[in-house]
Amino acid sequence: MSHDPQILVLGGTGKTGRRVTDRLRAQGLGVRAASRHGAVRFDWADESTWAPAVDGAVAAYVVQDDARPDLVRPFAELAVARGVERFVLLSARAWADLGDSLEAEEAVRASGAAWTVLRPAWFAQNFAEAPFISDDVATGALPLPTGDGLEPFVDLDDVAEIAAAALTSDRHDGAVYDLSGPRALSWAEALAEIGRASGRDLRHVDVTADEYVAHLVGRGFPAEVATEIGRYLGHIRAGLSAHLSDGVQRALGREPRDFTVYVRDAAAAGAWRV
Ligand SMILES: NC(=O)c1ccc[n+]([C@@H]2O[C@H](COP(=O)([O-])OP(=O)(O)OC[C@H]3O[C@@H](n4cnc5c(N)ncnc54)[C@H](OP(=O)(O)O)[C@@H]3O)[C@@H](O)[C@H]2O)c1
After folding, report:
1. CA distances from 15 to 20, 142, 263 (A)
2. Is there an atom of ligand 1 within 6 Å of 50 CB?
3. Gap from CA of 156 to ligand 1 centroid (Å)
4. Is residue 176 in a domain?
5. What is the mean pLDDT of residues 136-150?
6. In the chain, what is the straight-line distance between the N-terminal and C-terminal CA atoms, in Å?
7. Average pLDDT over all residues of the chain
8. Could you tell me the distance, in angstroms and rounded to a whole number, from the CA of residue 17 to the centre of ligand 1?
9. 204 CA distance to ligand 1 centroid (A)?
10. Ligand 1 within 6 A of CB of 232
11. Residue 126, ligand 1, Cβ within 6 A
12. What is the average per-residue pLDDT within 165-189?
């Protein structure tokens, strides 16, 4: 094990963790990208994996298990006892908007370490990266119970840039950043943009929440996870997620990346090539 100070990145193989890891490594920093199948083993369901992953780390990016937010408190206690001085927690704007319990946020606030909370809107990258909708997008017809509801998709390059900055300086200590893109789009509008950029015929198929939950269960999602996703999408359908947030501007002093920029770059990289 390296004796240089390390930064632990949970969910290190996932959509956000991978980008956070890449940014930190590009700065020459020591990173431990951890997950069940990653280079460093970390499993929320197996507490014996926590201490070996944490040892040597001075800061941690935390992607929680959405079904077990209660585990963040014992994890944070263990991490602080073993030398972690700073947490950057990935939360979600929808949870705060829906009035859900924010147990993981409360746990890092109470940890005694410095903390920053990131609350993103829906990720633009969901259109091309698993697990939620990318498989359906690939078929050309995306069933979603969102109607004409609008969402200000946030670009994960913005989220990762903020996470990396907050993990490596004290400028973001105590900040809660609600993160969105610069404009809200419907799913039909988003798919039309992707279709134009990728030369594909893509369309949104409006379905009921129950139909969508059944669709996700058919794709192998556990029923409780599918029901939760259906609940968030109902919030969008009701028009309650269309508002813009200013977290990117507050954290980075610039405008968020536009959805069109994401689509252009992802299409150029072959994201929707058949
Ligand atoms: N998708 C959205 O639009 C959106 C919006 C706002 C907030 N969020 C939040 O973002 C989080 C997901 O982050 P993400 O998109 O970066 O991740 P992701 O792409 O869904 O990947 C999940 C990561 O967590 C790891 N993981 C899964 N189960 C684990 C377990 N039991 N123990 C340890 N690691 C585990 C996975 O790797 P292994 O398989 O190797 O373990 C992987 O690295 C969720 O909390 C979600 O609520 C998502």
Report:
1. 9, 20, 16
2. no
3. 13
4. no
5. 96
6. 42
7. 96
8. 8
9. 25
10. no
11. yes
12. 98
Q: Report pLDDT for 212.
A: 96
pLDDT at 132: 87
| Residue 224 pLDDT | 94
* Strand positions, DSSP E, the chain: 6-10, 30-35, 40-41, 57-63, 86-90, 114-120, 141-144, 150-151, 176-179, 185-186, 203-206
Residue 59: give its domain's CATH number. 3.40.50.720
pLDDT tens figures, 206-252 = 999 999 999 999 999 999 999 999 999 999 999 999 999 999 999 99
Question: Is 15 touching ligand 1 by the criterion CB < 6 Å?
Answer: yes
Q: Provide the domain limits for residue 110.
A: 1-120
Predicted pLDDT of residue 3: 59
User: Exposed, middle or buried by CB within 10 Å (0-12, 13-18, 19+), for 3?
Assistant: exposed
For residues 201 and 3, give the distance between their C-alpha atoms in angstroms, rounded to a whole number.
52
Position 1 scores a pLDDT of: 46
Residue to mutate (ligand 1; options 35, 54, 119, 225; most atoms within 8 A of CB): 35
Question: 14 alpha carbon to ligand 1 midpoint, in Å?
Answer: 6
Last residue of a domain, one of 103, 120, 137: 120
Angle between helices 209-218 and 223-237 (to 10 degrees): 150
Asked whether residue 100 is domain-assigned, the answer is: yes
pLDDT in tens, 35-56: 999 989 999 999 999 999 999 9
Q: Residues 43, 36: contact at Cβ < 8 Å? A: yes
